[in-house]
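Sample intake sheet
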Amino acid sequence: MYLVAVAQGGHKPCVQAFGAGQFDVHDSKESKARSSFFNWSFLCLAGGSAAASLVLNYIQDNLNWGLGFGIPCISMATALVVFLMGTRTYRYDAKGHDKNPFFRIGKVFANAAWNWRTTNAVRLGEMEAQGTLRPKSSQQYKFLYKALLAPVGSHGEGGACRVSDIEDAKAVLSVLPIWISGLAYAITCALQSNFFTEQGITMDRTIWPGFQIPPATLQLFVGFSLILLIPIYDRFFERAITGRPSGITMLQRIGIGMFVSIICMIVAAMVETKRLETAMESGLVDKPKETIPMSFWWLVPQYLLVGIAGVFATVGLQEFFYDQAPNELKSAGLSLFLSIVGVGNLLSSFLISVLEKTTGGEGKDGWFSDNLNRAHLDYFYWLLAGLSTMGFVLYLYVAKSYVYK
C-alpha cells in the first residue's frame, strides 16, 4: 500500500504537468488544446476506474485475486513501454542556470521577514515610474516587496531578490486561499467509496431476476457520468455556449463544481431519510442483513452528481493549480491539487471519528452505528452540506478578489 502511495505521488502530479507542457501557450491553437488536455486526461482516469469497477471487481471476487492484480500490472507495464517510445518526440523545457526555484521563493519570504521594519515605498515608486512594476500588481502582498532590498546589515545589492522572484512568491501565496476553500469539496468526494456503498449494500440491487449488481460496482455511475459529460463539456459547453475559445474561466468552473457538490449532499441526505423511513415501515430496523424494499436506483442521482461535480471542480482545480504555479513549479502546483484530495480524506476520517465518539457510546446508536438502519447518515450528509456551503461562500469571497498570474 505504501508503494502505491509513493508511486502515485511521483506519477500523478508529474504526468499531467509533463503532458500539459507539450502545448505551447503562446500558440492560440495549442493553448486551446492544453485546456482540453486536462478534460481528456481526467476522462481517461475515469474510464480506467470504470473498467476496474466493472471487470476487475468481478474477476477478484469470482475468479482469482492473482489474475485481478496481474491484469493492471500488465497494463501498467504496457503503458510504461508506450510512454518510453515517445521519448524522442516529447518537448522538454530548457533548463536554465538559475537557482533552485524553492530556494529563490524561500529567499523572498526570508528577506521580507528580515526587512519587516524597513519601508519600501520609495523603492516601489521608483520601479513603477520605470515601468518595472505594474501599479495594480504592487498592491497585492505589498510586504513581499521588502525583499527587493538587501537584508539589513548586508553590503551592496547582492542579497536582494529580483522582481520575478517576488512575483513567483506572490503566485504561491495567491493560490493558498483557493486551496483552503477547496477542502470542504474534497471531504464530500471521499464519501462515494464508503458510505454510498454501505447504503447500497442494504438496498435491492436486482438488475434482472437472479442477478444483483455488486455494491462496489455502483461507483460505475460516477465513471459513466464523467465519460458522458467530459466530451460534451469540452466540445459543446466550453466553447459553443460561452462563445470564448477557453470557455468559462477556471475559477468559474471550480465554483460550479463546488455548488453541485452541495446539491449532491442534499440529495444524499434526502435519499437516506427515505431509506430509513422504508426500513421502519417494513419492520427491518433491527434486521440489518435483510434487504430493504427500496431500489438501488434511488442512489444513482447522488453518484451522477459526484461525477458532474468532478467534471467542473476536479478538472478545474487541476488546470488552475498547474496554470497559476510558477513556471518551474508546475508539477508542484499539481501536487498542491492532489494534497487537497489527501487532506480532504484525512479530515473526513477525523470528522467521522469525532462524530462517532460524540454521537454514540454508552449503549446508544450514533450516526455511524454498525446497524445502518439505526444510524443517521442523513444527519451527517446535512452536516456536510452545511460545511460545503461555508466552503463555497469562502471560495466565492477569495475567487472574487483573485488576480490571475
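Comment: Strands lie at 203-204, 206-208, 211-212, 292-295. The chain has a mean pLDDT of 81.
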